[in-house]
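From the pipeline queue, job 12 of 40. The input is one protein chain; the requested action is below.

Action: predict structure.
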Amino acid sequence: MTPFGTSSLRGWRTLAATAGLAALIPLSTMAASTAFPPTSPQVNEIKTLPAGMLLKSKAPGNYFDNSGQLFGPLFRYISNHDIAMTTPVEASIQEGAMLFWVAPGEVGKVAGSKDGVEVIETPERTVAARGAKGGYHEANFKETRRELEAWLADQTDWRPTGEAYGVYWNGPFTPWFLKTYEVHIPVERTANPPDLSAHRWQDRVLVVMTPSRDDDAFREQQVRFDAHATAMTARDLIVKIQTGGDAFHVSLYGKDGGRKLHQTTPLDMEALFELIDSMPMRQAEMRSNQG
């Protein structure tokens, strides 16, 4: 079963019958309100989502394997309490969770966490978003996530703070080629974007942000740097360390000044070297060295 948004009364009755919920359908179904403006297909942007209340259901395993189990408890909950449907539906992929937004005017109808549904108060969130069109399946999610991550890597003023998740706008009776969706990655502004102008066309730079030099992740990263010092020098890699951040993260900037990689865990050095060696500039360097 796929994620859901607004639909006609006839569509919802068909859906509910499929899920064994026909007796719970309201007598009238209005067009669903939207929690925030959508991001257009093929557009990347940074946007702020409003604070609000969400209803959440979870099931073991991957979201795409269990969306049918996730929808049932949420639909029963909003039907039992006469809560209007909203769009979009959020999908936490690895957690295996589906979330419905509650419209501000419907909050008073929420009756607390029960029957497999958790009530969540979420603060205002800033996300990197990419819009897309197509079916609501795992391959499309992964491709759109890859495109968003590549774009975000070049946004030096922003860094990711959480996992990517899906945002689905249409109901199951919308043809797949008309469906729209988004992938979001939670982000925050980098405290002090590094000035790497002196290194452009000379060095590749690893910028490490850490709360302190005693941070466990930083210590592990330093051990890995020390163990691979020769290979780093061969690739013109230098390290800049910034202390005082909220959490550990590390970014790779190429000789052109663009950010090529960002992560919140210590780097796997072999994977880092493989990435660098795949870059056209590095390949040209290797050919020149061989000559």
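Job complete. The CA atoms of residues 9 and 28 lie 7 Å apart.
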